[in-house]
Amino acid sequence: MIEIKEPKQFQWDYGNERKSSDKHNVSKEETEQVFFNQPLLLLEDKIHSQKEMRFHALGRTDNNRKLHITFTIRINQIRVISARPMHKKERKSYEKNS
């Protein structure tokens, strides 16, 4: 099981922040909200974890927008790689497991 310790701190790469905003219309603020709202499903990304462990988060913003976030943990900070709206299959899985 994946656990993120409090307090939750974030580390942003400008390119990843811009990509999530420009390509998926997901803001930095919305992305961070997901980690403070429940339910939050955290999953390992074994396929893309060759160099460092990567994870997926399925959760919702304060406005109930359902997002899929790919991230890693660096120096006890959440480093967001990408954030986008959940696909239909992810929404179903999220709703089933929450």
* Secondary-structure element order, N to C: EHHEEEEH
Q: What general form does the structure show?
A: globular
Question: How large, in whole angstroms, is the Cα Rg?
Answer: 13 Å
* Cα end-to-end separation: 15 Å
Strand order of the main beta sheet, please? 1-5-4-3-2
Helix content: 25-40%
What structural category arises from helix and sheet content? Answer: alpha+beta
Classify the beta-strand content into a percent band: 25-35%
Characterize the quaternary organization of these chains. Answer: single chain
Q: How does the major sheet shape up?
A: 5 strands, mixed
Task: Give structural notes.
The chain has three helices and five strands, in the order E-H-H-E-E-E-E-H. It has helices at 14-24, 28-34, 88-97; strands at 10-11, 41-44, 54-60, 66-74, 77-85. By secondary structure, the protein is α+β, with helices and mostly antiparallel strands. Strands 1-5-4-3-2 form a five-stranded mixed sheet.
Highlighted features:
alpha+beta, 5 strands, 29% helix, 98 residues, globular
Quick structural overview:
The protein is α+β, with helices and mostly antiparallel strands and 98 residues long. Helices cover 29% and strands 32% of the residues. It contains three helices and five strands, in the order βααββββα.
Annotate the secondary structure layout.
Elements: E1 10-11, H1 14-24, H2 28-34, E2 41-44, E3 54-60, E4 66-74, E5 77-85, H3 88-97
Parallel strand pairs: 1-5
Antiparallel strand pairs: 2-3, 3-4, 4-5
